[in-house]
């Protein structure tokens, strides 16, 4: 099992509806792709741990890095 953790800063003014949409989308994708982990959001900061098959997790992380709803991804 491959593990990946990252954090990022949400763009200013991100709404609760957007956060809910991110969570819903993540749950759906992760269930379909056998990915587990944790997504936290506090004080405009995301912290996520992803676990699963290496290529799937790396592919997901590439998409996450391109998401315009957050920045300063590390």
Structural class comes to alpha+beta
Q: Tell me the fraction of residues in β-strands, as a range.
A: 35-45%
Distance between the termini: 21 Å
Runs in which pLDDT lies below 50 for 5 or more consecutive residues are none
Task: Tell me the overall shape.
Answer: globular
Oligomer: single chain
Order of helices and strands: EHEEHE
**CA-based gyration radius:** 12 Å
The count of helical stretches stands at 2
- The tally of strands reads 4
Major sheet details: 4 strands, antiparallel
User: What order do the strands of the largest sheet run in, or round the barrel if closed?
Assistant: 2-3-1-4
Q: What does this protein structure show overall?
A:
By secondary structure, this protein is an alpha+beta fold. Helix content is 41%, strand content 35%. It has two helices and four strands. It has helices spanning 16-32, 54-66; strands at 2-10, 36-42, 45-52, 70-71. It has a four-stranded antiparallel sheet, covered by helices on one side. Strand 2 (36-42) and strand 3 form a beta hairpin. The radius of gyration is 12 Å and the shape is globular. The chain starts with a strand and ends with a strand. The model has no long low-confidence stretch (mean pLDDT 95).
């Amino acid at each position: 099992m491959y593990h990946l953790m990252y954090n990022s800063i949400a763009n200013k003014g991100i709404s609760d509806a957007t956060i809910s949409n991110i969570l819903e989308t993540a749950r759906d994708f992760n269930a379909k792709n056998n990915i587990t982990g944790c997504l936290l959001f506090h004080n405009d900061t995301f912290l996520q741990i992803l676990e699963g098959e290496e290529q799937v997790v790396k592919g997901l992380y590439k998409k996450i890095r391109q998401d315009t709803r957050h920045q300063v991804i590390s």
